[in-house]
């Protein structure tokens, strides 16, 4: 995809959104990650003040600020300059290799996904495990990561009738996206398995969410017994995360 001129949009009187492209695209998303990092550096250095939150998404970055701050009027020009200079990070934020269980008790939609593509459930699992996924954005609920892209041969629409309750830790796909539900909630994605490591844990005070936008995630298969062992309470959550963190800057 070619370069798009950044577009600055006012979001009320306390936020600006910088759009870096019209489509969901890995290069656009990488520029968003680079812009978010540049804004954070500008805040840390004192070049930008009054910023209270930086939120990267698929194709944009939203910056929330305190409108009472004296430097608030200069924020738009700073953002435009940083956006024009934004470059993708040289590497992924972090790389995860996470366990996933595809036992039928955790995967009520696995057979339907297989039938849709004239595959066996085992072939669906093999294809899913073969593809690294990138965390494009966080949203819907704390800890919910939108990951892409799953193999084109597994693409499927959301359920016609969403579930009123999706079990926590469910591994789900829709379109060419994948996600893990942090808690019990409504949802319309196809449930093909489960991942035992909590994706949001308040015991990890510095970073309760397991994922950040820009992370790269792969999965490996485990059986139901291993799943139950890994999700048992009482394990050190930080040590548990480190067990599956392959690489970090």
Radius of gyration: 19 Å
Order of helices and strands: EEHEEHEHHEEEEEEEEHHE
- Tally of alpha and pi helices: 6
If strands are numbered along the chain, what order do they take across the biggest sheet? 12-9-10-7-6-13-5-14
Q: Level of helix content?
A: 10-25%
Largest sheet: 8 strands, mixed
How confident overall, as mean pLDDT? Answer: 91
Low-confidence stretches: none
Distance linking N and C termini: 27 Å
| Total discrete domains | 2
Q: Could you tell me the CATH topology label of the largest domain.
A: Cyclophilin
Highest-level CATH class of the largest domain: Mainly Beta
Using DSSP, what is the number of strands?
14
The CATH homologous superfamily of the largest domain is termed Cyclophilin-like
**Beta-strand percent range:** 25-35%
- Please state the overall shape, judged from the principal axes of the Cα atoms: globular
CATH architectural label of the largest domain: Beta Barrel
Structural class: alpha+beta
Layout of secondary structure:
Elements: E1 7-10, E2 15-19, H1 26-45, E3 51-56, E4 60-65, H2 75-85, E5 95-101, H3 110-116, H4 121-129, E6 133-138, E7 145-148, E8 163-166, E9 170-174, E10 177-180, E11 185-187, E12 190-194, E13 216-222, H5 224-230, H6 237-244, E14 245-247
Parallel strand pairs: 5-13
Antiparallel strand pairs: 1-2, 2-4, 3-4, 5-14, 6-7, 6-13, 7-10, 8-11, 9-10, 9-12
């Amino acid at each position: 995809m070619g370069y798009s001129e950044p577009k600055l949009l006012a979001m009320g009187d306390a936020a600006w959104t910088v759009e870096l492209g019209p489509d969901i695209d890995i290069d656009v998303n990488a520029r968003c990650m680079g812009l978010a990092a540049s804004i954070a550096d500008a805040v840390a250095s004192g070049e930008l003040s009054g910023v209270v939150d930086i939120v990267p998404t698929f194709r944009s970055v939203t910056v929330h600020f305190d409108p009472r701050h004296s430097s608030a009027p200069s924020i738009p020009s700073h953002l435009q300059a940083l956006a024009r200079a934004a470059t993708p990070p040289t590497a992924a934020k972090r790389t995860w290799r996470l366990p996933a269980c595809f036992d039928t008790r955790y995967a009520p939609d696995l057979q339907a996904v297989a039938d849709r593509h004239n595959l066996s459930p085992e072939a669906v699992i093999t294809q899913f495990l073969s593809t690294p996924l990138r965390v494009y954005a966080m949203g819907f609920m704390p800890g919910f990561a939108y990951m892409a892209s799953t193999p084109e041969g597994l693409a499927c629409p959301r359920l016609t009738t969403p579930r009123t309750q999706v079990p926590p830790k469910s591994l789900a796909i829709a379109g060419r996206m994948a996600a893990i539900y942090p808690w019990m909630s409504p949802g319309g994605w196809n449930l093909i398995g489960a991942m035992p490591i909590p994706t949001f844990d308040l015991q990890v005070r510095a970073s309760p969410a397991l994922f950040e936008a820009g992370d790269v995630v792969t999965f490996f298969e485990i059986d139901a017994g291993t799943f139950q062992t890994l999700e048992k309470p009482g394990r050190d959550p930080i040590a548990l995360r480190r067990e599956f963190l392959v690489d970090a800057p």
